[in-house]
Amino acid sequence: MWAARFVVLLTLVITGCAGPTAVTSPSATTSPPVPSPVAAVPSAAVTPAPSPSGSPQVACPNRDGGTCLRPLVAGTYSTRTFQPRLTYVLPTGWGNYEDLPGNFELLPPGFDLAGGDAGTSDYIGVYTHVVAETEECAGPAPGAGTTPAGIGKWLAGQRNLAVTTPRKASIGGLDGLVLDVTLAKGFKRVVDWSNGRCLIIGQAPSGLEHGVNPGGSMRLYLLESPVTPGATLAIEIDDVTGTDALDAYSAVVKQFGFGR
Fold first, then answer.
1. How far apart, in Å, are the Cα atoms of 101 and each of 1, 184, 235, 238?
2. Does residue 147 lie within any of the structural domains?
3. Which domain holds residue 211?
4. What average pLDDT does this structure show over 3-14?
5. 239: which of 25, 67, 245, 251 fits an S-S bond (Cβ 3.0–4.6 Å)?
6. Domain total for the chain?
C-alpha cells in the first residue's frame, strides 16, 4: 500500500487523480503501476481484531485492502488471501491493512492510513512477484533478470542510488539476499515530476511500483519465490521519515514464516 512516495506525483501527472496509496491494484490478474486512493479511517472508528490466530473475519477499513485484519493486539497471525501463506508475530500497536493474492502490508505503531495516502508512513510490504524497474519508472528494467541475484546486482550498479553490498539472507524458510537503498548524494531527478526514483515493479499477482525518496531508506529482502520458479518474492521495509528504524522493523520480518 504505502511505497514509492514520488509515484504519488507520477499519478497526478498521468491520471490527474490525487492522493493514491503506495499499494497498487487489488486485482490478481492486472498490475497497474499506480493504485486507487484509500480513504483514511480515524482511529476511533476502528476496532482492533479481538484475538490472534484464528480471530473472526472483520471488515478491512482499507477499501482496496482485501482481507486485512486492521489494528491488532499482540499475537501471532496468518494471511487469509496472500500467497504463499504468511505467518507473522506482532507486538501491540501494529496494523495489517492489506491482504491480497500478491500484496501484504503492515503498518508500525504511530502511523495510519492517512499517512499512507500522503506518503509519510513507514511500513513493511511483502510481494509475491517483483522485478527491477527502470530509473524513469518506465516498466521492467531490460537485462536485470528475475532472480534475487539478478535484481540485486542491477540495483547495486545503478546511478543515483547508494546500495549496500547485497548479502545472503534467509527469512521464513526462503533464501536470497538483503540490501539497503537510499538515494545517492547529489541525486538529480531524472524527470521533472519525480522526487525520487523507481526500484521495483510488481508482476501478477503483485501490483506495485515502488522506489525511494530523498530522506528515506529502504531495506529489500529479495528471496527465491516458492510460487514461481526463477522469480523473486520481495519483503520491503520502508523508513520514509529517516528515523533509522530499519533494524527495529527487521525484527518483525525475521519472525515471518512462509508456507502453502
1. 13, 34, 15, 21
2. yes
3. 6-39+51-259
4. 36
5. 245
6. 1
In-domain check, residue 252: yes
Which range among 158-162, 187-191, 253-257 shows the weakest confidence by mean pLDDT?
Answer: 187-191
* Residue appearing with cell numbers 533494524: 247
For residue 44, is it within any domain?
A: no
